[in-house]
Design brief:
single chain, alpha+beta, five-stranded antiparallel β-sheet, elongated
């Protein structure tokens, strides 16, 4: 009798899980676009470059780089390669034609571009405008849905407890 009771209880529980839950109504459509990725274009004139040691440098100020993006997200930088049919080249990159290394580093509100040829001499400034694209990726974009929900719940719990 005890075994029959357990089997019936298990069957009732199992059928409740499969048949007791139904789909709800369709939710409203979301906004077009991608809220997790933002970008900004910078057109840098030859006069904006400055020399630091044996490097040529330029600073790009941007509000895209918040503390959250720096600490939890990702930053990508691209340069428009005018000598290669106007394609975008991901940085850091070493140009084969000149052996110049184009790199970057970032902090809150700022991306610094550096050009160095490794010879100890300062590279020549670009003769025309140079276009850079800075891409900021939200840290939630790389998480799975379960991890996103857990992270959001943790933030909400901290807000409720007054610890944020």
């Amino acid at each position: 009798m005890k075994t029959l009771t357990y089997k019936l209880s298990f069957f009732v529980l199992l059928s409740g899980l499969f048949f007791g839950c139904g789909k709800g109504p369709q939710g409203p459509a979301g906004a077009d676009g991608n809220a997790n990725v933002l970008s900004h274009l910078f057109v840098v004139s030859p006069s904006a470059w400055y020399i630091s040691g044996s490097s040529l440098m330029v600073d790009l100020s941007t509000s895209l780089l918040t503390d959250y993006i720096i600490n939890e997200g990702a930053v990508l930088v691209f340069v428009e390669a005018t000598d290669a049919n106007n394609v975008w080249q991901a940085m850091p990159y070493t140009w084969p034609s000149t052996n110049e290394y184009w790199g970057f580093w970032c902090e809150k509100g700022l991306v610094t571009i550096e050009i160095n040829d490794g010879s100890g001499t300062v590279p020549a400034k670009p003769s025309g405008n140079t276009t850079f694209k800075v891409v900021a990726i939200d840290g939630f974009a790389a998480m799975t849905n379960g991890a996103k929900e857990l992270a959001k719940a943790q933030v909400m719990l901290q807000m409720k407890n007054g610890s944020l």
